[in-house]
Design brief:
The protein is 65% helix and 0% strand. The chain is mostly helical and 108 residues long.
Length: 108
């Protein structure tokens, strides 16, 4: 069943949990990733990866128009970037790990 599909492959949260969260009055994507699944606290990158599907499910169930879906996605990303520190972490990530040593460091 499609509701048994995982939101992110590395974590046990499934699509049905988003629908159940809405029955418990979750009405924002931030609520789902932070309070209902706690995914934002476990892995911010995974939470961002799950967001489009979460917003799609919520939009269908709550009859959101495209503008509302976009707003929810943007608000949730802002939450991850600024409240959960993803922006700070992502700025530190590079595609290569370079170590710059000064001549004095090399002698030690």
């Amino acid at each position: 069943r499609s509701s048994d599909l995982r939101l992110v492959s590395e974590f046990p949260y499934i699509e049905a949990e988003v629908k159940y969260a809405m029955k418990e009055y979750a009405c924002t994507a931030v609520d789902v990733i932070s309070r209902r699944t706690r995914l934002a606290f476990l892995n911010v990158q995974a939470a961002e990866e799950a967001l489009p599907r979460i917003v799609e499910i919520m939009g269908k169930e709550l009859n959101w128009n495209d503008q509302k879906k976009t707003e929810e996605l943007e608000n949730a990303k802002k939450f991850l970037y600024y409240e959960m520190g993803y922006k700070a972490r992502s700025e530190q990530l590079t595609d290569r790990s370079e170590i710059s040593l000064t001549p004095a460091d090399r002698k030690s």
